[in-house]
Every structure is written in structure tokens, then in C-alpha cells.
Specification:
It is a single chain. This protein is an alpha/beta fold. The protein has one domain: Vaccinia Virus protein VP39 (Rossmann fold, 3-Layer(aba) Sandwich). It is built from 7 helices and 8 strands. It has an 8-stranded mixed beta sheet. The longest helix is centred in the first third of the chain and has 21 residues. The radius of gyration is 17 Å and the shape is globular.
Length: about 240
């Protein structure tokens, strides 16, 4: 039986339209460039803890496979490859996958990129990341279940998403989109998911949430990891 796709055509079209300047830190994806180091800090910490890695090791994912779902043009997939993983990236927008392939080739990185949904992939992965994706899919619970199906035994799942709060709506949509910091129409507040709802989806998929860490914004620190989850948050989960 063919599984229903998590892809929303309107979302794929929106992000496909941003493909051309995805790697421009001052372009439409500038906020992603600011967010990526914060994500990587969290990912590296969770990798070290989950896989019992030496925190000083340059390639802690050596010998492991990683899947980046909603990979865009590779802002996260490329660092995962540099951490030693055999990386697969999948995204609904074929335009960004073309950019991702070209950029990886220019960096000498061997990353397997696919245009489509996670449901179309086969095999399993030691690490799965899905950053700012679950709020853009047709059925979040089914999407989380699809991620769980692709996770190898002993594997680690890491996700991030905006919280469903007045604060996240103000900063992400009213201010960031309203002032052009993020392209208008990127977010739909009705699709935002609070941590307890995501935890319930993970549990229904046979997963256990191990950690929730906020991504906060302040004038002094900019975007940073925090105990404050009102704006955005990251989670790690296992079977």
C-alpha cells in the first residue's frame, strides 16, 4: 500500500522559490544561517551524549548514517557530512535539491540528495534530523511516525519547531515576516506545535522524548540555546 505523502504542494512551491539564494547569508534564508550554528551546537551535544562520543573528536559520526529531512539546500546536511556521517538529504522542493547537489559537489562532499517525502525512502538511519519541518507538513503525526520508521535501532532523532505561543507568533510572523527578515508566508501559526503535543506524537510512534531545549532570542546573545521554549525549541528522542 502506498503511504500518503507528508508534502504540501504549496509549501514545496514556497521553499522552492527561495532556492536561488539559499546559501547567501544575507539573502532570503539569512535567518536560517543565523539559526544553523545554534542547531549544530545542540546536535553535537546530543550526538556526544547519545552515542557516547569523545566531545573533542572531529568526526563523531564516522561509520554512522544520517538523514536530514527537509534538508533545503544543505545547510545542515553538509556539516553532518563533515562530522563523518554518510548523509542522505530529502526535501519536497526539487529546486533546492538541485542547489544542494551543486553546492555539495563544489565542497567535495558526497551527499545523497532526493526530491520527495521521507515516506518514499527506504532503509534506516542512525541519526535523523528534521529542523523546522513538522509545522510545514500535511499530517504532523503521520510525519513523525514516518521519521520513527526510518530510525535505526539505537538511533537518535532530533527535531526543531516553533512553539505555539503568542511570543512565537509575534517574533516569527508579526515582526520577522512583517519586516522582511523571513519571507512572508513562510509560517502559519495554526500549524505551530507545542512541546507536549509533539511529545504525544512521538509516543504514539513508539518514541520517547529525552530532552527539550529552547531557542531564545535576545539583543545581547541573538539566537541561543535556552531553558526558555516560548519561541522555538529542539527535541531529541529515541525508541
Amino acid at each position: 500500500m502506498v503511504k500518503a505523502s507528508s508534502i504540501l504542494a504549496s509549501e514545496a512551491a514556497h521553499f522552492g522559490g527561495l532556492a536561488a539564494d539559499w546559501w547567501d547569508p544575507k539573502g532570503d534564508s539569512a535567518m536560517l544561517h543565523k539559526l544553523n550554528p545554534v542547531r549544530l551546537q545542540y546536535i553535537r551535544d546530543r550526538i556526544d551524549q547519545h552515542f557516547d562520543c569523545d566531545e573533542c573528536k572531529f568526526r563523531p559520526l564516522e561509520g554512522k548514517s544520517a538523514l536530514d529531512v527537509g534538508c533545503g539546500a544543505g545547510l545542515l546536511a553538509e556539516p553532518l557530512a563533515r562530522l563523518g556521517a554518510k548523509v542522505t538529504g530529502v526535501d519536497a522542493a526539487a529546486e533546492v535539491i538541485e542547489v544542494a547537489r551543486a553546492h555539495a559537489a563544489g565542497q567535495g562532499l558526497d551527499i545523497a540528495y532526493h526530491a520527495g517525502g521521507v515516506e518514499e525512502l527506504e532503509g534506516s538511519y542512525d541519526l535523523i534530523t528534521a529542523m523546522e519541518v513538522v509545522e510545514h507538513v500535511a499530517d504532523p503525526a503521520a510525519f513523525v511516525a514516518a521519521l520513527a520508521e526510518r530510525l535505526a535501532p539505537g538511533g537518535l532523532l532530533i527535531m526543531s519547531t516553533p512553539n505555539k505561543t503568542a511570543w512565537s507568533k509575534l517574533l516569527t510572523i508579526t515582526l520577522a515576516e512583517g519586516m522582511g527578515r523571513i519571507p512572508k508566508g513562510t509560517h502559519d501559526y495554526d500549524q505551530f506545535i507545542p512541546p507536549e503535543d509533539l511529545e504525544a506524537m512521538l509516543a504514539a510512534a513508539g518514541m520517547k522524548m529525552m530532552d527539550v531545549t529552547g531557542i531564545a532570542m535576545s539583543p545581547m546573545k541573538g539566537l541561543h540555546l535556552s531553558d526558555d521554549t516560548k519561541l522555538n525549541y529542539l527535541i531529541s528522542a529515541k525508541r
